[in-house]
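Hi Y.,

Following your request, here is the sequence exactly as I used it, all 213 residues.
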Amino acid sequence: MDRKYLLLNITLLVWLFALLAWCVGASTLAQSAGLLAFAFFSAFILRGLITGMFKKHKNSDNQGAIFTTPTPDNQHPAQKETRTVIACDVHLEGNITSSSPVYVYGSVRGDINVKESLVNVMREGRVDGNINCQELIIDGTVTGQCTGDAVDIAENGTLTGTLAYHSLSVKQGGTFTGQAELRAPRHEQTNVVGLVLDATTDSVSKKVEEKRR
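Below is the corresponding structure, written out as tokens. Let me know if you'd prefer a different format.
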């Protein structure tokens, strides 16, 4: 027997008992059984209302919650890429130093130093400070001194200040105001080591040549 129908079944049994008592002429017992049946039926109705309200409240709580599920990650730990993201509603005052890419959706007042990676200033992003990176993409607003190997000013990008670069791309709609300097290409280091002839070895070789003569 299901528990939620237990009170209803008890109510029916008590009500039948009240009818039998009334039929045999036991009016007092019939009235008492009828009141008891009414009490059980009221409890059944009240329990249903409370259960319904609780389920409704629980469902509303679940609808307002945010659930996150982990995504499968089959990459090797060395292949995982981390990134620093300044969200659109964040205003950061201070310097950023990182070895991973930096994406600016909000605003930064300070220097960004990412020598071996990317700095991407998004369309609504703003940076008031110096930027030193390997690759720089500007689709927002940057004011300061920028240094990078590859600099790309996109359609909505605005750069005001000084720029030192290896390669520069300014798309239609992008603006650059200030001084630009073409950096010298990097010199590749070689591991060739010069050989120095030992003086004693040189003298021995000369003596051998004299004896042969």
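The helical segments are 6-23, 27-64, 199-212.

Thanks again,
Q.
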